[in-house]
Amino acid sequence: MSPNVGPNASQRVGGVASKNPETEHHPSSRGLSVLLSVAGVVAAVLGWRALVGMVAPDPTWSSMAVRLGAAALALLPAALLLWLMVVAQMLARFVSAAFDPLSGADGYFLRLNQRVIANTVEQFLCFLPALLALAAGTSAARMPEVIALALVFAAARLVFWLGYLGGPVLRAPGMAATFAAVTAALAGAAWVWLA
């Protein structure tokens, strides 16, 4: 088998593995990633608590339709962020030599941003139905918690994107905060519908 064939062939130059910050592992990276992940979850919880206090209860939330509408509205910041990621990808592709995504000429930013977009879509597909189910099944008094959760999700995705641009280990706080928000939405939806 040729040294330039295999799963890491794209990272080889002249048969020698090239340094890629995305695949390079340092002994301290795992510990730093865990530390940053814990910080991300703590920040998500504290941010959620602060946002809950900022959202004034609305008497119209007694209607399930209005709660669903409010939850959909709270998802717009995350949708806008995903749109911005796609726009950034389109602009980077347009101004680079990698106009054709199948040519194999994608640089580091295009590959990284594509992964951010893909991960955001994956997380959104878990979060969206869970948040809507939570909003549909919760009480009007608990809606500030639902709305705050959607805003934390959007903030976590932004932290993930900006962190990943800084380096692979720096994506940890945003990924952990996202995971916490998705888990909370899924658990909350299960609780209100199964309890």
List keywords for this structure.
single chain, 195 residues, mainly alpha, Four Helix Bundle (Hemerythrin (Met), subunit A), two-stranded antiparallel sheet, 70% helix
Mean pLDDT: 88
Biggest β-sheet strands, sense, barrel = 2 strands, antiparallel
Regions with pLDDT < 50 over 5+ consecutive residues?
Answer: 1-19
Shape field: globular
Gist of the model:
With 195 residues, the chain is mainly alpha-helical. The protein has helices at residues 27-54, 64-74, 76-95, 108-137, 143-166, 172-194; strands at residues 12-13, 16-17.
Overall description:
This protein is mainly α and 195 residues long. The chain has a single domain, classed as Four Helix Bundle (Hemerythrin (Met), subunit A) (Up-down Bundle). Helices cover 70% and strands 2% of the residues. The chain has six helices and two strands, in the order ββαααααα. It has helices spanning 27-54, 64-74, 76-95, 108-137, 143-166, 172-194, and strands at residues 12-13, 16-17. The protein has a two-stranded antiparallel ribbon. Helix 2 (64-74) packs antiparallel against helix 4 (108-137). The termini are far apart.
